[in-house]
UniProtKB/TrEMBL annotation:
Family listed: Belongs to the biotin--protein ligase family.
Source organism: Lentibacillus amyloliquefaciens
Name of the protein this chain belongs to: Bifunctional ligase/repressor BirA
Binding-site residues for biotin, renumbered to this chain: Q116, K187
Every BPL/LPL catalytic domain range: 69-260
GO cellular component: cytoplasm
DNA-binding region(s) from the entry: 21-40
Function recorded in the entry: Acts both as a biotin--[acetyl-CoA-carboxylase] ligase and a repressor.
Length: 328
């Protein structure tokens, strides 16, 4: 609903101040009674709007009710999330996304779930996705890149997440190669990139994002208490998820467009600005090998750069990385 989108935009621009019905009706070129009807619709979706005679309308409270509508209103993207699918519950938004992609869902389709009963991490690990506590979403992309470059999309996604956290909260995010967002050394978000491709052509990529937002300590399983955290736990503040999702999508779209026009280089610079432990010693666990090295950043193709005395600088494409504080 473009009119409603602009209406929300106007009300939010004058953040918590009254905006007159006259002004709104001129700006949107609709009648004052049409404005009133839109306000009623907004209230159904959880907005609390106060209307005062002679003063106008103001948003008292934006909803944290996640719905396709609330996700659309106020979303400032050009193509990402134009097709939005919201589920109150899903096994995994990745599965929903794969099904949708096979049914030709368009590039930029976004799937959001309130909870996942079979949330997954990399290598068949479990991703805990407590109801209403975090952002569990998948993005369908049809990028004109080679399959080998798809890992760059994971790093790109990490920059968008880090940006949204840095700008939208008081927390300081760091990216742990390749796909974890850490706050105060604990995992707050993970990214799972899956694709359907042939040798030289990508059919589609699904980028899964899991971000812990409002969990309290006990809302994580026992085994994760030392490793995992949420934005609320680190900042003391409860964050509504709708604006955070929108911010992530805005940063993601910006980074993606930049990647398509200027290549990976600007993404790499951004990534390294959030990259944790660059220049420090890390332990790298590949399929065949465990060794210590200096983490010297990411390569132009997104690989991890690890420097050892014996081998010089090596590119690592697939590994688990341990930071040194984790080793003791
Ligand atoms: P990963 O393999 O890097 O991390 C998985 C590991 O992280 C688990 O083995 C566990 O130790 C830990 N973990 C599990 N749940 C959480 C949590 N909520 N917070 C912090 N640590 C946790 C990371 O994989 C990729 C995660 C992607 C999740 C998104 S959610 C939307 C989409 N749907 C889906 O099923 N997966 C993606």
């Amino acid at each position: 609903e473009p009119t409603r989108n602009r209406l929300i935009d106007l009300l939010e621009t004058y953040d918590h101040e009254y905006v007159s019905g006259q002004f709104l009706s001129e700006k949107l070129n609709i009648s004052r009674s049409a404005i009133w009807k839109h306000m009623k619709e907004l209230e159904k979706d959880g907005y609390f709007i106060e209307g005062v005679r002679r003063k106008g309308y103001r948003i008292v409270k934006s909803p944290d009710k996640v719905s396709e509508n609330t996700l659309h209103w106020g979303l400032k993207t050009n193509w990402l999330g134009k097709n939005m699918i919201h589920k109150t519950t899903a096994t995994s938004t990745q599965y929903v996304a794969h099904d949708a992609a096979r049914e030709n869902a368009e590039h930029g389709t976004v799937i959001v779930a309130d909870e996942q009963t079979k949330g997954k991490g990399r290598m068949a690990r479990v991703w805990h996705s407590t109801k209403h506590k975090g952002i569990w979403m998948s993005i369908i992309l049809r990028p004109p890149i080679l399959p080998a470059a798809a890992t760059q999309l994971t790093l790109l996604t990490a920059t968008a997440l880090a940006n949204a956290i840095a700008e939208g909260t008081t927390a300081t995010p760091a990216i742990k190669w390749p796909n974890d967002i850490m706050i105060n050394d604990k995992k707050t978000a993970g990214i799972l990139t899956e694709m359907q491709a042939e040798q030289d052509r990508i059919h589609y990529v699904i980028v899964g994002i899991g971000l812990n937002v409002n969990h309290t300590r006990i809302e994580f399983p026992e085994g994760l208490h030392q490793k995992a955290t949420s934005i609320k736990l680190e900042t003391g503040i409860e964050h509504p998820t709708v604006p955070l999702i929108q911010q992530i999508l805005q940063y993601f779209e910006h980074a993606y467009d930049q990647y398509m026009t200027a290549g990976f280089s600007p993404i790499k610079t951004k990534w390294e600005s959030y990259g944790y432990k660059i220049g420090e010693k890390i332990r790298i666990r590949t399929k065949h090998n465990v060794f210590e090295a200096i983490f010297s950043g990411v390569a132009e193709d997104g690989a991890l750069l690890a420097e050892t005395e014996a081998e010089g600088v090596q590119k690592i494409y697939s590994a688990e990385v341990e930071w040194f504080h984790e080793l003791y």
